[in-house]
Amino acid sequence: MTIDSIITEWTYRLPKGYPTTDSDYNILRNVLSEMTNLSEDDRDKIVNQAKGIADKGGDETPTTSRFSELNVSSTLIDQIQQTYDNLPDNKKQAFDTHYRRHSIESFVKQGYFPFKDFYWITDQSKAAGGMGRGEIQTLLAVQDSKSGGTSQHDVVLPEGEWEIKEVGKVGAKAKTFRPAAIGMTQQGDLLSKIQDFFNDIVIPFSQMADPYETLKDVVDDHSWERLADFIAILNQTFVPLIPNVTTGREISYKTGWQSMFIAFKKMHDIFWKTNFDTDIQDTRLSIKSNDKQSSYWITDDDYNKIEKNSGGDDSVDIHIGNSVENENSNSVIWFNRIKRSTYIATPDSIILELNQIKNKFFADILGLIVYDVQQPGRPVITPANEWAVVSVSQGMWVFGLKITYDDTYTFIQLQS
Q: Full-prediction pTM beyond 0.85?
């Protein structure tokens, strides 16, 4: 029988979960009688030590603490006890009155006041899972709460789990947090698809010696101006982002996601709301003579003429375009990738996928409690629709409070 099991049984039987009267120590004596074979003298020593009465002649026996029920490390329990011991009497009385009496809702409303001194207690050890500011404060106030450690969310209640996040930086407007392991970018999510877009379209484009001269031979001349606009968007927005996107470590909301979202919309308008997509020449006429074979660009209309009159006696007039070279073939392949690009065809799919990332986090918890660094110790419950995925940092998605971002960042404000 371990001391931990004895403490657990004892605190379970206490009305408040911790000793407050002499009769509570009689309960400890009963537990010791039931669970151990200790002599009466040994039981008395343990009870006296639990009361704080020193026994100079006996062996040390581990003392218990009412804070053991929080399911946190002994290091944290020591910090909590020390902080409590240093409180003035009036704060101790308020602490004792409200200790683990609150629901989440009553804690957030006003119940956090007696526990604000405990806001700063943290444990960054690996075993603690990097407990952040505000978690201990919440555990001390909320009834039946326990730390989730490394395997669950921050605060575990019988009915479910809550996440605790500290947000903001002193002097900064934006309020952000990273949702730990569940926020890691992964294969198949939005970032990996954007990386595919860069690998298939942006990087090959950046390697063209002169993109306009390379691509215009496969575009009808009356769409050359649209081609120039299309190229300008790629050069101004996407090419500078190649290092950030390919590594997937740091993509900001301003020059990264917002710029790409607007650029995709502009490319959509050029490619799908004009004749640009139909002006790309991908029909060719191949001629083979002896051991030679050549191919030439022709229009779709000329192709239809040939198909309609093949095998007949009537001649047809067609326009033979430039010869098809390897470079031309690569250009057609490149344009076909443009046609298949989801984000050029439907730019708003970016918003849908960002919502999926955000909702994956919120679907697993009862709610999110945030502590603003500029208002230490004051908890606030925030629903999912007040948050958006705003950037990538250190390979993780970053969530931001929407109200702290300007309306100009449309990819943020459109997330529901």
A: no
